[in-house]
Amino acid sequence: MDLKGKTVLVTGSSRGIGAAIALAFAQKGANIALNSRHELTTEQMSVIKACGVDCIGIVGDVTQDAAAIITTVMTHFGQLDVLINNAGVTADKLLVRMSSTDFEQTLQTNLVGTFNMITQSLKPMFKQRAGCIINLASVVALTGNIGQANYAASKAGIIGLTKSVAREAALRQVRCNALAPGMIDTAMTMKLSDKVKAQIETEIPLKRFGQPQEVAQTAIFLAENDYMTGQTIAIDGGMTMY
Ligand code: NDP
Hints:
Sc_DH/Rdtase_CS; oxidoreductase; oxidoreductase activity; alpha/beta; 3-oxoacyl-ACP reductase family protein; SDR; globular; 7 strands; 15% strand; binds NADPH dihydro-nicotinamide-adenine-dinucleotide phosphate; seven-stranded parallel sheet
């Protein structure tokens, strides 16, 4: 896919990995719809527009506003070529302290939110007979993690969802893949103490956290390569190579 002039929607793109992905697609000439639950700032929009592309900010929660988000994209741009399901949350707790509400809330945003966005996007993509969906999973979907049963389950669900969407949508030339980042330097991992971060770094073969831009490069690769579907690519400094 040549990304120039295409429309790309990135959920949860006010910061971190989502913001880096949005910028990378803008640098390829794609028009961008940013999204988060809070108002996007003029500065966030200007960074994208400085690439010479169109950009809108859509306030909406993927758990309840998926239809409205897609309607706004279609009304403004008239097409939706790439959907990046990036919005995600963590709510870490050991299992003995995790209530069913803690479990359900994380699944609601990460997994159900992704499902909502996909089902709404498939309508215009099927009509276009073209489209690309990229879902943000995580290495913990592959390995599990202490204190992250809710998060790991939501991200493992995303991998199964990705493969099922890829199978159902392939006949209409819509592709669906997942990215499984390891430890990436964002607000999400800033919550960890320096001691915990240093310990994690010793366990990463490349001995450092990844940068959001490195995840964004892989998203570009998945969007541009028309023969990739149903795959999960780990981008994790070697954490899951064993
Ligand atoms: P951040 O916490 O930095 O950013 C999350 C983004 O999602 C924000 O823009 C936030 O904005 C938005 N968001 C959260 N909930 C919703 C919602 N219900 N509807 C719409 N937007 C929402 O996260 P990262 O950039 O670190 O992570 C991005 C994705 O990558 C997530 O899916 C995460 O699970 C995944 N990931 C991250 C890793 C890491 O190490 N950082 C590792 C593996 C995977 P607002 O709060 O304003 O809504």
